[in-house]
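hey all, quick one before standup. I had two proteins in the batch that finished overnight and I want to keep them in one place so we stop losing track of which output belongs to which input. First protein below, input sequence then structure tokens straight from the run.
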Amino acid sequence: MKHRVAGRKLGRTSMHRLALLRNLSTELFRHERIRTTLMKAKELRPFAEKLITLSKRETLHARRLVLRDIHDKEVVSKMFDTISSRFAQRPGGYTRIVKLGPRRGDNAEMALIELIGAETGKKAQAPAEGEGAEAKTADKKGAKGKAAAQPATKKKAKPAKEKDEAAPKKSARTKGATKTKTQSKGKAKTSGTTRKVGKSGS
């Protein structure tokens, strides 16, 4: 007979298992939705719901009892300020488990555990985000249209300017080259004449 074997060991010692549940519940209350294995989610559900029931008391003793398992003070303040007021009229069943199928690799059953009411806040934010995305896409389309119109005019104007500017530069270079050539020839002629004169005088 299976007496005194309730609960899942999860392949851990008792202290390791308690630390795991504390960490999972902390992240659950912080993000209101976490993804984990199905067995961990089933063990986490009663542990987290007892902490929510404690937070509904809103007393100093209840806060200290919650702080015994949740060591993040910001998360504890969120539990007593927002989560407890959300479930004030609810007698239990504060969490929901959604199966996600096997995990790729080790084929472990995955699940999504979330607080009841976490989906309403995300649905309210979704339309606002969608409107913002539509506005951004419209702005991007307008910017692309302007950018497409501007480069066409610039590309047509640039080649003519480059040709006009390139032509004088080439002519200036050729003129400078011819001047230097003529100057060097003249110097050579004068030097030759002086040498001849010198020889004739001697």
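OK second protein, same deal, sequence then tokens:
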Amino acid sequence: MAEGDDKKRARDHAMKIMRLFLGLSTLLLVQGGLLIAQQIAADELPPAGTDTGLEGKYDPQNGIAQLIRDKSPESARSKIFEDDRVLVFMPLPEEEVVAPGHVLVVPKRMGARNLLDLKPDEMCYLLATVQKAAIAQKKGLGATGFRVQQNNGLSSSQTVYHAHFHVIPSFGGKAPGTPAPRRKLPEAEYNEIAAKLRAAWPKT
């Protein structure tokens, strides 16, 4: 009987998490017309049966998987937090970012292509880490807001098929919904932002 209760609790917990994600997705769609504009037209999608991010084998050589394995000093510059389950990193210096302090939260387990591949306990742990990233952006960078973006499949603008959450800070002085120009961060600014996020990362 106890085992049945445990399974029911696990199912209920998973349903709560899914409802949270559905709510977040609805909020992003309502507030972020930009997300809809990014979707790929139906006639430009690959033929049925090809890998579009929801199907196909996991590629262990994808960019995120490579970064997880990379222990070089160069890759360490981008890593804000890491433990045995999760990695939080800033896009690499050569990449354009929506806002300074934009980070990605990813599971370190190889094989999870998208949200559908995540286990309930992974979802909980990743969301708790997303919250910590937002706290670090607020305390370390003075962010006045943030948004969480999570794309699944090519038609929803997922380009790296390893599950990941974007946590993008926003700062006062612009109208809601106004897209910021994307830009590359100079090396000194990049390193300063990374150091501030690490210093502000919650200890518990």
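Flagging for whoever picks this up: The longest helix spans residues 2-31. The two ends are 35 Å apart (CA to CA).
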